[in-house]
Amino acid sequence: MLRLISRPFAVTAGFVVARSFAPCPLCSLRNRRFAPRFVRVSSSASDTNAHLQQQQQHGNGDSSKSSSVSSGLYLVATPIGNLEDITLRAIRILKFADIILSEDTRHSRKLLQYYGITTPLISYHKFNESERESSVLQRLRQGEIIALISDAGTPCISDPGMVLAKVCVNENIPVIPIPGPSALVCALSASGLSTDEFKFVGFLPKHAGSRRERLQVSAVETATQIFFVPPHKLHQFLSEASLIFGESRSCVIAREMTKVHEEFWRGTLGEANKRYSTQEPKGEITLLIEGKANSLNNVPSDDQLELELKELISKGHSLSMAVKLVAEGTSAKRKHVYALALRLYGNQVEPMDDSTQES
């Protein structure tokens, strides 16, 4: 009988595994407590292998009717922290693959060793994607089974692999997703923010101007916005987001998900900016910001529109950008906002393209 225990945790090789202190329910010695030990998906690696072999012999859905695996590129999701967060299908594909393309072979080897997987690893990251592409495609054309994994989570999502997957699709080489952990979905599901509609932004550009422009686009959208933020850039992100989104906008900072020090911090951008102004958190961060309230049924007054224009311009936006942002963020017609800008600033406003004017 398998018993999975989620907490307390123990850390090994950069991942997290469960640690069990509870008495074994099958143990004949009722008062005996087992010493701390690591718990795998099954009670031991051999049990896991035996279970997989049994699946292959007796069948378990279309993917396990035989021991053979079709050739193609397999995008295999791997744990974002806790080693138990991997599927039996993912383990089977990694075992059957001819090679595994890995973002960091040293990091991935720890996962493979934990599950007794001996498939050869080949490095595949953003610095060698282009030079690896031709040899990988040649092996795929020859009918090999190639698995692609990232350091954590689902490949191709802010990780290497997107270009390779696109080339394979264009060449009619099978691309097979092996679903599993994803930091953005994990954070969104537990955030408490709206999940009806969301936009994954990922990492922001390094250039300050491009970064602010991207935040300005997100600030006027009604969907929940999801970002990946390096811990050493969290305060910079919160400072810029507070100015552009407004300090009262709600946010969630999900840190070290599924790991020992998992934390979900909830509050406003202003509160977050103050909290993290003097401390730099550790670990992987997924940051979510609530979408802008939909005000389609609440037409703002001219005074409100003028205030928004003045505020944006005082923050350094050009007049044309201010007009665009106010129109997109409210139910006001762009033509009307443009007319207000003309009244306030006269000839400083750039002419509006006729093709963008609204009736």
Q: Any overview of this molecule?
A:
29% of the residues are buried. The protein starts with 8 loop residues before the first strand and ends in a 14-residue tail after the last helix. With 359 residues, it is of the alpha/beta class. The protein has helices at 45-58, 88-96, 105-114, 129-141, 162-170, 183-191, 208-219, 234-245, 269-275, 302-314, 319-329, 334-345; strands at 9-12, 15-19, 38-39, 72-76, 99-102, 121-123, 145-149, 175-178, 198-202, 224-229, 250-255, 263-268, 285-289. Residues 1-13, 18-46, 54-66 and 354-359 have low confidence and may be disordered. Helix 7 links the parallel strand 9 and strand 10.
What Rg is obtained from the alpha carbons, in whole angstroms? 26 Å
The assembly state of the depicted protein chains is: single chain
Count all strands and give the number. Answer: 13
Low-confidence stretches: 1-13, 18-46, 54-66, 354-359
- What level of helicity do the residues show? 25-40%
Order of helices and strands: EEEHEHEHEHEHEHEHEHEEHEHHH
The class by helix and strand makeup works out as alpha/beta
Summarize model confidence as the mean pLDDT: 82
Largest sheet data = 5 strands, parallel
Q: What general outline do the C-alpha atoms trace?
A: elongated
Number of helices: 12
Distance between the termini: 70 Å
**What is the percentage of strand-forming residues?**
15-25%
The neighbouring-strand order within the major sheet is 6-5-7-4-8
